[in-house]
């Protein structure tokens, strides 16, 4: 069995604010070591459960956070930026399941460091379904027929996952107090939980169905201000809804929608004087 693991950072045990997830800040090195350990608990247990191949994709910020020297020796790691499919780079139909580690809630929702890709996004929609990183990535997995069998992160990420994907296994390593404060397990307790939940997820994987995306999805992104929407609407094929900060893009499939989202949010990030 082949397993795909996407690892973000905001949902990692004990991490509560930007100083722990920003490579320019003083707490980052501690944060990335805990992130690496946490990913490794899941990876190692997956191999222990009979997985023959585990592909790990570093999915946070510049996507070069995981310390490869500490990962299980049989792991393959995708690291670095730019990736055509970002947080789901390398995922295809050959995988029996996907696990998302260190995930967080979507923008505009309660949850530690909640956001959707960039801080310029208020909401993202696939047709009329509101999604964040978790949901969008799960749709890409579903395009390939791959179920997301487990999500590890804060309590709000777990709720989001359970609302989208019936029978998914969730591992809650911390509870949200505010967007920058949490009640967290210790790394030692999180290790036990993540290993137990990885076993459970693999045993339960046949009950979890892929989150199949709609054909020809309409992508809509609501931006925080009008300048961001203007920048995003420079991409060919987009339409800025009159009187709103929402930009639409009619995609041929979810893969095109995903890449359009990456381009639109990157363009919007160029806005200055917010």
Structural class: alpha/beta
Give the strand line-up of the largest sheet: 3-2-1-4-7-8-9
Do you know the CATH architecture of the largest domain?
3-Layer(aba) Sandwich
Shape: globular
Let me know the CATH homologous superfamily of the largest domain.
Dipeptide transport protein
Written overview of the protein:
By secondary structure, the protein is an alpha/beta fold. 30% of the residues lie in helices and 24% in strands. The protein is built from six helices and twelve strands. The chain starts with a strand and ends in a 6-residue tail after the last helix. A hairpin with a 2-residue loop joins strand 8 (169-178) and strand 9. The protein folds into two domains: 2-117 and 133-207, 3-Layer(aba) Sandwich (Rossmann fold), CATH 3.40.50.10780; 218-269, Dipeptide transport protein (Gyrase A, domain 2), CATH 3.30.1360.130.
